[in-house]
Amino acid sequence: MNIIKSTKVLFLYKFMQRYASSQALATDLKSIVGNDNVATSTAVREQHSHDESYHPGHKPDVVVFAQSTDHVSKIVKYCASKRVPVIPFGTGTGVEGGVTAPQGGVCLDLSRMDKVLSINAEDFDCTVQAGVTRNALNTYIRDTGLQFPIDPGANASLGGMCATSASGTMAVRYGTMRENVMNLEVVLADGSIIKTAGLKGRSRKTSSGYNLTNLFVGQEGTLGIITEATLKLHAIPEAVLAAVAPFKDLQGAVNATVAIMQSGLPVARIEFLDENMVDACNRFSKLNLDIAPTLFLEFHGSNSNIEAQGQIAEETCKSYECLQFAFATDVDKRAELWKARHNAWYAAQALKPGSKGYSTDVCVPISALSGIVTFAKDELKRLNLLGPIVGHVGDGNFHVFVIVDPTNPKEIELVHQYSMALAKEALRVSGTVTGEHGIGVGKKKLLIDEFGAAGINTMKAIKQALDPMNILNPGKVL
């Protein structure tokens, strides 16, 4: 009884000590950014403790809403002086636990940094603050004839998309964030501010200095906090043609994808959904698609050539036992189709109410796609797991949305087994353990398998050089 009583007293003491520390932290931060930009309530801290993944959430001690790069710089400088962790937060749509605060500290919410700073239509680029979302940017530029096509599905913040090197459904034509970021403004761990491609850099190419831009694209807030981004824009196509192609079996759908890509056909999107994913989308989005392995395709071009693209794709698909090839030229029909695809994550979780999803994210060379998708299906069956498959298969990237009861340790363990097996198979065929979601907290061991000791040690040296006190998003990536 005395041991129990002593344990309770110690817990209460530590709780009160941390509470007092949090209140002092909040008071200091209010003097920097104002009372309205600092929150310590349990509800706000809980909201900022997790992302969309099944990874356990950890609440920060304080949430601070920055409204400028100057705010971010002063906050980081203060936190560095106190050795307090800083965790950047965009919209919370990540799926690898990248925004959790396992050591407490300050969650730096960038959502109020939501200004489009410049649009250079003649140069096909723009500069935005980190909190601007993908949809907000496209709404802002809709009358210019331009678009920002990197489309991860969720309405993510552009700073967060830079930080995770996001991509999405149109990466096969327009590339990922790495190919579309021209310059970044970044606050480093000591509060200093840099521009990664020069103080005014907006050129399409450069051989000047180290490639700092791509160092910070994909670093997940562990090397610096992105506050502004200069991004490439693309012309809105004159004509768009979408199509739905169900197949007799999975092998046919995947082989058709490989054949279309190897033919050089300039397809804008080519998404694969297995029969379980199609069923989930039918239920969740009220569609009426054939429950079969299916490709969603989209072609961008001119009125004179787009139908020819569609016809070549149709002929290719039918040579691999496509059951039908239905075109959708109507804007509303296309929007309905892609909205259903973007809601696939929620549709999958709705198959098992109360569940959470774990999304694998491997990417492999196109020639290895058929074999690894078959491997993914076989492993699901072996482990008796429910896992609809969906993916941006045009660039070899696909996801298995494994549906899991987060309160069932046995299921969690099976999911870990599955994700490890799939990732190691991806590495065996010269792929990567993450095509677009990042490492976060869930794939750190896999990163070692992918890069080896020398590669990881190089990353650690960079981390040590830029963040020697390990205050920037600690516990993530490395």
TrEMBL record:
InterPro entries: FAD-bd_oxidored_4_C, FAD-bd_PCMH, FAD-bd_PCMH-like_sf, FAD-bd_PCMH_sub2, FAD-linked_Oxase-like_C, Oxid_FAD_bind_N, Vanillyl_alc_oxidase_C-sub2. It comes from the Eukaryota. Its main location: mitochondrion. It comes from Rotaria sordida. SUPFAM superfamilies: FAD-binding/transporter-associated domain-like, FAD-linked oxidases, C-terminal domain. PANTHER family: D-LACTATE DEHYDROGENASE (PTHR11748), D-LACTATE DEHYDROGENASE, MITOCHONDRIAL-RELATED (PTHR11748:SF111). GO terms for cellular component: mitochondrion. Involved in D-lactate, but not L-lactate catabolic process. This is Probable D-lactate dehydrogenase, mitochondrial. It catalyses: (R)-lactate + 2 Fe(III)-[cytochrome c] = 2 Fe(II)-[cytochrome c] + pyruvate + 2 H(+). Residues 56-236 form the FAD-binding PCMH-type domain. Keywords: Acetylation, FAD, Flavoprotein, Mitochondrion, Oxidoreductase, Transit peptide. GO terms for molecular function: D-lactate dehydrogenase (cytochrome) activity; D-lactate dehydrogenase (NAD+) activity; FAD binding. The keyword ATP-binding does not apply.
